[in-house]
């Protein structure tokens, strides 16, 4: 009888341990509910009401079209309509439309000088103009012939549009640029995108795509140049 009693106690203890382990296991943090995945916003809207679609490339979410806003995100107006002399001389934010043609604004967006970028007020809340390092992150992710993966296959690009596949969905078009002395150049052949950080006191960083290049190059230019602007999510 004593042996049976001991065996019964052992059985009760064993069952209690199993129950305790089950309770502990049910409290394992790994069993906690997985938080819901937040979907990327399909679009973003600037202060003027222009709507831009978005694309995720690696870890970054980008706008697919070039910026077209005429105002900073605080509602203040960005200077425009500058003649060549005024464009070269200004050290404050300004934008142009290639050859002042409304159709170019629709297709390619606006060309901003680096001083407008440097205000930090071009982008809607939650977005910003990419830094040089963020452009480098993008091109490193895309790898060899990354420029071609960023370029649209549109006929707006002059031949040969080397390497163009647009496999990234970035959909870059050849928006050209406004030179620091005010002239308009390279539409249908290349596009330049500002970076938010400067190279030195006189120059800002940029990324360029060209119809004769399958790659993408990052360089620096005088701050009065007028280049396109893309946005990346914070």
Write a structural description.
This protein has 234 residues and is α+β, with helices and mostly antiparallel strands. The protein has two domains: 2-31; 43-233, no CATH class. The chain contains six helices and twelve strands. The strands form five sheets. Strands 1-2-3 form a three-stranded antiparallel β-sheet. A hairpin with a 6-residue loop joins strand 10 and strand 11. The longest helix has 25 residues, at 2-26. It is globular and about 65 Å long. The N and C termini lie far apart (74 Å). 33% of the residues are buried. The model is unreliable at 1-29 (pLDDT under 50).
How many separate structural domains? Answer: 2
Task: Classify the helix fraction into a percent range.
Answer: 25-40%
Strand/helix succession: HEEEHEHEHEHHEEEEEE
What composes the largest sheet?
Answer: 3 strands, antiparallel
- What characteristic shape results from the CA principal axes? globular
Features:
234 residues; alpha+beta; 2 domains; three-stranded antiparallel β-sheet; 6 helices; 12 strands; 24% strand; disordered N terminus
Please provide a brief summary of the model.
With 234 residues, this protein is an alpha+beta fold. The chain has 6 helices and 12 strands.
């Amino acid at each position: 009888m004593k042996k049976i009693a001991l065996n019964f106690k052992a059985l009760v203890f064993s069952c209690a341990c199993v129950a305790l382990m089950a309770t502990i296991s049910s409290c394992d943090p790994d069993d906690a509910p997985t938080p819901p995945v937040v979907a990327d916003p399909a679009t973003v809207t600037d202060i003027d009401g222009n709507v831009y679609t978005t694309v995720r490339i690696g870890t970054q979410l980008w706008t697919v079209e070039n910026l077209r806003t005429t105002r900073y995100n605080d509602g203040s107006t960005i200077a425009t309509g500058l003649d060549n002399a005024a464009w070269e001389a200004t050290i404050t934010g300004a934008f142009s439309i290639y050859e002042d043609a409304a159709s170019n604004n629709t297709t390619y967006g606006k060309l901003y000088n680096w001083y407008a970028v440097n205000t930090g007020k071009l982008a809607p809340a939650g977005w910003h103009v990419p830094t040089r390092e963020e452009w480098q992150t993008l091109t490193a992710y895309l790898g060899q012939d990354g420029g071609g993966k960023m370029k649209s296959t549109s006929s707006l690009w002059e031949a040969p549009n080397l390497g163009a596949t647009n496999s990234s969905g970035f959909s870059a078009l050849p928006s050209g640029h406004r030179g620091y002395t005010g002239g308009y150049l390279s539409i249908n052949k290349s596009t330049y995108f500002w970076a938010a950080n400067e190279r030195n006191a006189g120059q800002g960083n940029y990324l360029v795509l060209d119809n004769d290049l399958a790659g993408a190059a990052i360089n620096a230019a005088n701050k009065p140049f007028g280049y396109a602007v893309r946005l990346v999510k914070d």
